[in-house]
Specification:
heterodimer, A: 120 residues, alpha+beta, 3 strands, 17% strand, B: 315 residues, mainly alpha, binds fe (ii) ion
């Protein structure tokens, strides 16, 4: 498919040169990327909220505090280097989750019980 | 799978409203379009801090100063959410920022206009954030997952931006004759640039079909612009002010307000870099980046030192 898309979307200013073309550059001194997880006051678990760059874990937590909890969104922060996160592969989703598909007896609704029984 | 099959599978997912995630296969043009759009959006949030930052030290009261500080800080956060979403498409933060500084990447032209009086801060909140929200609400349903999630977070924070702007104008509109005049003047200057934020007319948008098909965007520039006009015409009445367009008129056939012609020459001039503040804005960004270099280096050196110490201690 050879569609050239280059102009005319809101917030998207037309131009011949589009962003996204790597620029030649010197040695990398980018701070590592961290994924941020936050648990809210009533929350049972930490939820992924986004990511940020920071020189070390301490700085990542402080920046996460500034960026992701400005409105008291959380009372606990986890940060983990993005490179340490391993994800399942989307193209294997079929086989990966298939074993659970035919086990409806794992759900309480599978069992037919008399209406007389309550609280079960 | 052949490329053709992959493309079909990709389009099927989009048609079924399944979000596209970073590890999923996607056409190169989809990736590029998203990189460009998300990074421009990120740059807009960051450059957008400059016109408002201009008034933080001169806000008329401590309350207004605190509000403005909080708003500008939010915009920095929005920039971050968007840069992060952009990075998931395989471009580094540094590359994105280089693109801004070299002029290769653009940002919303609205931020190339100056904030001349305090009333401009109110007008920016009401009109500029207002226009941005129309677009951003649409983008919460965009097809690329990380972009959509960033938008949800941003939209939650945006509504205070528009409200504080309108409220600030409301106060001025009930003030002294000078304050009223200042309020009207700000509206006069920001109205047309705000309408330009939605981009060229649909009849000129030769390629937006593909973006609609991929559900990167779901409404056309003109649809969003019309929605914005209809909303503002009603709101300005509450201020007792007017919008600077003699052609504004309710159209019973269309059930929308008709409005006058945008000065497209001005639009293209500002896009091309000839707006009132283009050079100043880019210069300010570059200067901030360069003057912050020592902080980035020091933090990296500090982190390395701490790591070495910890390693020595463990040994
Ligand atoms: Fe924003
Ligand atoms: Fe905003």
């Amino acid at each position: 498919m050879n569609t050239s898309i280059r102009r005319f979307f809101y917030g998207d200013i037309p131009g011949q040169e589009s962003a996204g073309t790597p620029v030649p550059q010197g040695p990398k001194n980018d701070w590592p990327l961290w994924e941020v997880f936050i648990r809210s006051k009533q929350g049972l678990d930490h939820k992924h909220v986004g990511s940020l760059h920071a020189a070390d874990a301490q700085m990542a937590i402080e920046n996460a505090r500034d960026v992701y909890t400005r409105r008291q969104e959380g009372i606990s922060i986890w940060v983990v280097k993005s490179q340490n996160i391993h994800a399942s592969r989307p193209e294997e989703a079929g086989e990966l989750y298939d074993p659970a598909a035919d086990k409806i007896y794992r759900h309480p609704t599978f069992y037919d019980l008399p209406d007389a029984i309550s609280h079960m | 799978m052949s490329v053709h099959d992959l493309e079909k599978h990709f389009q099927d997912k989009i048609d079924q409203e399944t979000k596209i995630e970073p590890l999923d296969w996607m056409p190169e043009a989809y990736r590029k379009t998203n990189i460009r759009q998300i990074s421009q959006h990120a740059h807009s949030e960051i450059v957008g801090m400059l016109p408002e930052g201009n008034w933080i030290s001169r806000a008329p009261s401590l309350k207004r100063k605190a509000i403005l500080l909080a708003k500008v800080q939010d915009e920095a956060g929005h920039g971050l959410y968007l840069y992060s979403a952009c990075e998931t498409l395989g471009i580094t933060r540094e590359e994105t920022i280089n693109d801004l500084h070299s002029g290769r990447a653009k940002y919303s032209s609205i931020f190339n206009y100056p904030t001349l009086t305090w009333a401009d801060i109110g007008a920016v909140g009401w009109l500029v954030d207002g226009a941005a929200i129309m677009n951003q609400v649409m983008l919460t349903r965009t097809s690329y997952g990380p972009y959509a999630r960033a938008m949800v977070r941003i939209c939650k924070e945006e509504s205070f931006h528009q409200r504080q702007g309108f409220e600030s104008l409301l106060v001025l509109s009930k003030g002294s004759p000078e304050q009223k005049a200042m309020c009207q003047d700000a509206i006069n200057r920001w109205w047309w640039p705000a309408l330009m934020m939605f981009g060229p007319r649909d009849t000129e948008s030769t390629n937006s079909d593909q973006s609609m098909k991929w559900k990167i965007k779901r409404k056309t520039n003109d649809e969003l612009r019309q929605q914005f006009v209809d909303m503002c015409v009603e709101q300005v009445k509450l201020l007792g002010m007017t919008l600077p367009d003699p052609h504004l008129k309710w159209n019973t056939d269309r059930n929308h307000y008709d409005f006058g012609e945008i000065d497209w020459n001005e639009f293209w001039q500002v896009v091309k870099g000839n707006g009132p503040c283009n050079k100043e804005r880019l210069q300010a960004r570059k200067q901030a980046w360069e003057e912050g270099a020592w902080v980035r280096e020091a933090a990296a050196a500090h982190a390395t030192k701490k790591q070495k110490r910890a390693a020595a201690y463990a040994a």
